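Q: Convert this sequence to structure tokens.
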Amino acid sequence: MSNNDISIHPPTRWLFGPGPSQVHPRVYEAMRQPIVGHLDPYFFTVNEDIQQMLRRVFGTENKLTFAISGTGSGGMETAITNFVEPGAKVAVLASGYFADRMTDMAKRQGGDVVRFEKPWGGVFADAEAADFIRREKPRVVMYVHAETSSGAVQKGKAICAAAHEVGAIVITDVVTSLGAMPVQVDETGIDVAYSCTQKGLSCPPGLAPITLSPRAAERLNERASTNRSWYFDLKLLNDFYNVSHRYHHTVSITLFYALHEALTLIVEEGVENRWQRHQRAHAQFVTGIEALGLRMHVPDDVNRIVNLNTPCVPEGVDDAKVRTALVRDHGIEIAGGFGPLAGKVFRIGIMGPLATEEHVARLLEHFGSALQAAGLDRTPAAVTT
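A:
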């Protein structure tokens, strides 16, 4: 940008990080359309379409399924502020950064938090998760389906079954997985699931899809205390979106257009076909990095997020140099690890338009070159250790 040019000229980037993901040209085109008012009947028609398509992607028949104004963290706060009341016991299965964020938010709401902890990347077996829940008898259980900080996937059926045994509802973070891998809210037994738009849905950030089971809706209606959050109060939001349409807040019409088109693309492709495409791209990537002598941080492929890969940084390689070279030389963005995984893993998202054989092959080619330039030892002895 020159001193005389104040217009915006962003660089071209290939978004292979943990989010935001690459946006389809049709989504950008939708964002160019004229806006209407947030109380206009056309907005509510768009919103109704979005709700129907979200149910298909979430794998649910839940009536209360919609997108709220806010990022994935706004979705998290919405779920927690509506269902964690002061003094309520909250059980968290924690093995990564976003379970820690759940914990922090629950404590801020006055929840009595108990945690079952594992190292980042660990997953909870059915029996141990169920035993923990039955022992603690919480009112709310929370877990992350696809932990972005580690690349691990947590199965949820046993968690939900045990929670329902003790009268708890289950809040599940599906921020990374929604739209790229099966979430299956109803089949799993999840009561409240929230997500974002900028990862598996391949849409710009700014909205947070959320869905509530009938059990959760009943719990919400029975709540006696006033929600500490006005903006994220689901009773008020549902009234605005679905009942009276009375003014609550000014939504971004442009972002709703974008989400409508992103979901339309998913429905046109077929939800199951999209999951399979991401699975194939993931398998291609893992094969490629193993050929380079790297290994995945999550050892069991059953427990890996398919659209967010965490290969370990090889010994002697500076991950920052790799990431810098990819952006500088090829416009490719990937991310590094943080917390206990800082400098130990790369976080590489392969989502949406980039989850194709051609794009993965190009990524692997440039990733391999950047690794070697940063010190990767490709001798046979190094590759086999």
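The longest strand covers residues 64-69.
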